[in-house]
Amino acid sequence: MVALLIIAGGVALLLFGVRFLRKGLDRLFGMRLGHWVQRAGEKPGRAFFTGIGVSAIAPSSTTMSLLAVQAVQAGQMNAQQMLAVMLGANIGLTIMVQFVALDLDQFAPILILIGVFLFQYFTRNRIRGVGQVLLSLGIIFLALGVIKSAVPSEIDPEGDLGRLIAIAENYPVAIMLLAAVLTIVTHSSTAAIGLLIGLLSVGAVGFEMTVPAVFGANVGLALTTMIFGWAQLESRRLAMGNLALKLLGALIGLAILPLLLVWLNEIPISPTIKLACVHTGFNIAIAIIGLPLVAPMSRILDKLIPTPKHGRGNRDEPRYLDPQSTHDVRLAMGQSAREIMRVAEIVRSMFDDIWKAMKENDEELVAEVGRRDDQVDKLDAAIKKFLTRSIKEDIEGDDADEQLRQLRYLSELETIGDIIDKNIVELVKKKIRLGAYFSKSGMAELDEFHKKIGENLLISETAFAQRDTKLAEQLLRHKETVSSMEQELRDKHFARLNQGLQESHETSAIHLDLLTHLKRINSCVTHVAYAILRRPKKSERERTPDTD
């Protein structure tokens, strides 16, 4: 009984080490991993090698699953592109298992010593991230040592445990299913296979029993990705494609299992390293099978999981926010970013349509623009609640910066919506009510100014979505141009007044107020550039003690 409790404690320590490793990778790389994934490109080959590289740097199956779902849900990649990334990531993730198989548990105290020193006594986030990763590896190796020490060196074949293992070896499908369930529960194929390596290293289980368990752990990881991404259409397609390939590989593996075991038993290396190689080889085989099938499989998935003909739910409700995903900060940030981009599209449509309504004296379109501002206000409140109250986990570093960046951009969009609704809408109503018209030259100048602000609004959207500092700098340069342009247009209007143009006198107040409010909108757009270029000060972040 005591031995079983010690083994259970070792498993718990292993799970904690894997989770702590993922948090350390988040601290070390932050949002950069997501950016690297998003830049994988459309070509399957490039996406495949990007997946290998990113998962080798960040060997966490949960992290890769979340990155995949986040990239698809944020609209930066489609399921076909991300499936190629996942095929590569599946291979890169096996590197961590290779380390676990090297029997390094005797070095665990050294890794823990260095990790604690870097994590506890340094303030720079990146150094602390390195320390947390080393500390996590030390905990993982220590957990394996605990499991090995608690397992009896010899198991009585006539005892209950010996008989149970003997029965299990005759049911490889059941072993695969149990391993899949264990992976889903732990959210980590590394933890599941690490436990197998620990038991195998002391002879508690036979090698023949662990091979189907490796198949099951891989299937369980694919199911985990499906659970994370089920709420969104594209990520569901991604998860289904990944699961289909894993299941295909597992079924082929089970079909040839007797021949495979004969061949593996002839390889003169330790069983633990052999098991790690089975894990790597399985994913290489899946990639060889899957890469040529990425495009046709995507077409099949599009038909099996079709895009709904009509939009989902009330238009005032968030489309991309899933409260169930707030346990992982980066997945939540990806969803909120996409919802904010939806707000940006609504605000830009307000900006374009109110101008169209003014030129065509369309009162119905003016009223519709006002209703869209109500929609913006409701979405603004929902997103802010999601970002500030729904995310239960303490965040810091790049994640805290990203949260602040999103809140700032959202606030500017809400302000632009208010300027349009409370100021420009009223001016357009006044113009329609008075039956007034701008002079031909005055209207042309306003059109030019409106077009310039519209271009900056579009640039700000792109700069936010891509975190593009060059576009942000371009916005700042445009700020001076817009200020000069606004003053020049005022002077031209005053010149027309001096010339006695009737239209200019009738619309003078409206004309000048439009220039003022368009310039105010451009100021909000410029603030987006500052949010991208300027890293928030520590005092602006909510500082909380470390609880990971």
Described by the principal axes of the CA atoms, the overall outline is elongated
Rg is: 29 Å
End-to-end distance: 31 Å
How many domains? The number is 2
Question: What would you note in describing this structure?
Answer:
With 548 residues, this protein is an all-alpha fold. The protein has two domains: 303 residues, no CATH class; 214 residues, Phosphate transport system protein phou homolog 2, domain 2 (Methane Monooxygenase Hydroxylase, Chain G, domain 1, Up-down Bundle), CATH 1.20.58. It is 79% helix and 0% strand. The longest helix is centred in the C-terminal third of the chain and has 37 residues. It is elongated. The two termini are 31 Å apart. The relative contact order is 0.08.
